[in-house]
Amino acid sequence: MQNRIDQLFAVKRHNVLNIYCTAGFPELNDTLPVMTALQQYGADLIELGMPFSDPLADGPVIQDSSTKALQNGMSLHKLFEQLTSFRDRIQVPVILMGYFNPVLTYGVEAFCAKCAEVGIDGIIVPDLPMAEYENEYRPVFEKYNLHLIFLVTPETSEERIRKIDSLSKGFIYAVSSSSTTGKDKDMKDQQAYFERLKQLQLKNPVLIGFGIKDKATFEAASAYANGAIIGTAFIRAIEHSKNIDETVKTFISGITQ
Amino acid sequence: MDIAINTGNSRYQVDKNGYYGRFGGAYIPEMLYPNVQELQSQYLSILSDPTFQQDFEALLRDYVGRPSPLYFAKRLSEKYKAKIYLKREDLNHTGAHKVNNTIGQILLAQRLGKRRIIAETGAGQHGVATATVCALMGMECVVYMGSIDIERQAPNVARMKMLGATVVPATSGSKTLKDATNEAIRDWINNPVNTHYILGTAAGPHPYPDMVARFQSVISEEIKKQLLEKTGSENPDYVLACIGGGSNAAGAYFHYLDREEVKLVAVEAGGKGVHSGFSAATTQLGTIGIIHASKTLLMQTNDGQIVEPHSISAGLDYPGIGPMHAHLYESGRAQFLSATDDEALAAAYELSLLEGIIPAMESAHALAKLKDLPLNTDDVVVVCLSGRGDKDLDTYIRHMNK
Ligand SMILES: Cc1ncc(COP(=O)(O)O)c(C=O)c1O
């Protein structure tokens, strides 16, 4: 079967909306209800965070969601249990995002096999750098048809972006500014960088993430790329939600309508 | 004095990919790539530059007060029936070995054109040593420190502030050294261009473990010369050091790594007992994983979540060890022991009463294992006395009143 991420970009090239949520948040068993609502109300892609005790690249909001999820009892084993038959209900591509240590401890091959078994399409591991991936782990990810999605930042050289593009499958995650997640930086300052990325004409689709929080920032980012990723703003929205379905509906229509 | 530069063919030094055996590497997010790459590609050429070496040497001599004495501890030797020497890093300016590294890194930061310095600290010794060199060079300094450590090492917090540094409490996780390090790394991600991160121990992404070990290697370089003068041989039978992340141990071992006849002993913090659930004895409790961008041994759950350690000593309260030490452990080159909070306290009191030296809580862990070594009267033992105990007086006083 063709990877669902590739299927998506084969038919949709603009305004692709990817929403991040932490698994097991706000409550342990909210993972599937959140994903179901995301699909129903129009998210094109779901990025599911695997909570970690020490999320180095994340700001306070996602850190706290991760801590809360762990307190709720979330773990990789638990997550795969929750995802056992999610493909009966959910068709959009799903990406797992998390730090390398839990994956390494689970066993990289066992992890990839499990992802393939439940129907995961891609993985984002911010602290698995390109060189380590290339030297050691690439064959395993490819064996299970999992796309490893790499990040590029405003400080990434053109040469390196091209290298990342050649190694990437699925899409490239363009971090809007050099920062941890959830920092409010002005989109306008990033225009030159977005423009530069666009000029490179990469073979992979590009989604812009970090600092995308509403309709305006989503549209601004989507003007330069195939779409954008929303994380912190969504976590904030569902943090105290009394009705997940309603909250997700309101949040997404606020972006897309 | 010069910084050890030749990696040679040592089995115990870093290889060209930044690994020690299967440990090490740089598991950094892309946001840190330009900074870490800049360091990786430049640190060896900067360190081997003669003007850099002259500056480093001059500051260590005139500002830090090196060489630090190698002191024959007569009464301690009588007690343990061996020839015990103390390498007096406690007599350095700012009171610990940490300053050897901060002097080296501030000179490096200048050459990289950085204007702003960040650091993490546990006991506050590295924070003070960083604030000190920033004052010396007129650079902005931000130090991250766990909020629990801010309480238990209050004098050092005051010193950092007096030296002009901003001390930012780390309130996530266990609120100790691990979390302070996370915050420092996050700061670096958010300030990718003008900032240098002065990491305080032989841990973190390559090239930090190697770079810090080289700056600290002045310790064993001096020990060799001093022992030769005092005993007729450069080699002791044992070198003993405590391990938080492993910088004082790396420095004390450095020039002995390939002299297999010298026994290297590392002492970790056993906390309330290795299996009490309140410990920081990483090699006994840890498994391989990634902490602070390095593949090494660390304490974690079956699910790969990093565990909150415990030690009475803020400088050893860390759930990992540097990759060089993980390799020394796994290869059997160094022997790893652990000392409990109580053993360390007893050793601190013992050194105070026998030698008139109040050691840092961290260094007391190394001293605490003298009783467990199979020593002969002719054995020459060097203990790295990594720091002085001023910062720990509160803890010591509390214990005294018990
Ligand atoms: C006096 C002293 N010794 C030892 C340590 C432990 O660090 P390392 O293992 O890097 O030497 C510290 C850390 O704060 C310290 O202050």
Characterize the structure shown:
The complex is a heterodimer of chains A (257) and B (402). Chain A is of the alpha/beta class. Chain A has one domain: TIM Barrel (Alpha-Beta Barrel). In chain A, α2 (31-41) packs parallel to α12 (244-256). The two termini of chain A are 33 Å apart. In chain A, 46% of the residues lie in helices and 14% in strands. In chain B, α4 packs parallel to α5 (125-137) and α4 (98-111) packs across α9 (208-216). The longest helix of chain B has 16 residues, at 33-48. Chain B contains 16 helices and 14 strands. In chain B, β9 (238-242), α11 and β10 form a beta-alpha-beta unit. Chain B starts with 18 loop residues before the first strand and ends with a helix. With 402 residues, chain B is an alpha/beta fold. The interface between A and B is medium-sized, with 38 and 32 residues. The complex binds pyridoxal-5'-phosphate. Pyridoxal-5'-phosphate binds next to α5, α11 and α15 of chain B. Chain B: It catalyses: (1S,2R)-1-C-(indol-3-yl)glycerol 3-phosphate + L-serine = D-glyceraldehyde 3-phosphate + L-tryptophan + H2O. Chain B: Keywords: Amino-acid biosynthesis, Aromatic amino acid biosynthesis, Lyase, Pyridoxal phosphate, Tryptophan biosynthesis. Chain B: Belongs to the TrpB family. Chain B: One of its GO terms (molecular function) is tryptophan synthase activity.
